[in-house]
Amino acid sequence: FFFLMIRRPPRSTQSRSSAASDVYKRQVLLGCVLSLDNGLGQKPPMGWNSWNKFACEINETLIQQTANRLVETGLAALGYVYVNLDDCWQLSRDINGYIVEDNNTFPSGIKALSDYVHSKGLKFGLYSDAGFLTCQKRPGGLMYERQDAQKYAEWEVDYLKYDNCYAFGIPVKWRYERMRNALNETGRPIFFSMCEWGFKDPAHWAREYGNSWRTTGDINDTWASFLDILDRQVEISHLGGPGGWNDPDMLEVGNGGMTTSEYEAHFALWALLKSPLLIGCDLTTMTEDTKRILMNEEIIELNQDDLGKSGVRLWQRQGEHGLYEVWVGELSGNELGVIMFNRGEETTQITVSYEELKWNGQHANVRDLYARQDLGLIAGELSFDVPSHSVKVLRVSQSHKQKSARSL
Questions:
Q1: What is the pTM of this model?
Q2: Quick one: which of 15, 119, 141, 347 has the most CB atoms within 10 Å?
Q3: Which stretches within 187-222 are classed as H helix?
Q4: What is the pLDDT of residue 36?
């Protein structure tokens, strides 16, 4: 993305950039400030996005097949309902400035594809960019926000991912505000996913603009990328909540670059962080392990919990064989989600006391969510051997005695 943003623009794009700067200055003087008003995002969105696996190699057949697979596999019934096209669906603009799809890859048109997705009981999402071009040099949305929003509403779009390429230094808040306002004006609720890459710390301000905001650059399908992005959530994880969520990027589970245990860690931690859970693999070729991970409804429940509080890292420690850590998230019903995460190269015993967890009591019922096993009543602390590059994912709830005392 850095290369795309600093390359010399064509002359026509330079003139549009100058015009946009003039408009920006006038609107700042007018002090026009609105807020997002769509009622969406009370829980993190779940679904599928085309980019991680397919990049620009997308077409209407792929999207139809994906919609079919979400339903056939049972993923949709678990909450994975958004079918989101990323970059490369758009080709040009017409003489009135309205966006035109690529008819070579989407010959039936975007509205027909949207209708197909909706006919399956699913929701339909598109991608654009808060710059003059998208990251793949397709037409961007800057200065065409109203036309684009009108077209999205006409097509019955439910989700918009809005990227950050080719903006040439025009202030980010102003650019995202323009699309937010245009979406509001349509009267159609469209989930607004800001893909600002975390450059301007959107976790601290983006709630007025979007339903979610990317906190980092793009993920890739490696252990190193997963860890880097996870670490960047530590200082901001508490800032997400109903209506506006931190977005550490889409899931790589099933794309083949990490081990099964690493994918289990990736999925569970994204769930506890209340990240959007957007599958990024080919649903037609999923392995049984990929299905098992993505379809673990007990871990999905951590993500979709009614309380809507994002998990936080309780601590990180250096062990003999590497780093290990504990993440914790408050859940409704006075319960906790706890993840013990071993980054090291050997199995490590990880122990956390109820006092550290701020648990009210010295006993708790504990359930292992990947093993789908009740571990019974455990006193004082949680202590487990966790294999290398793996997690132990636990749900902690009150004992029967504690529940009875509370009800009196």
A1: 0.91
A2: 141
A3: none
A4: 85
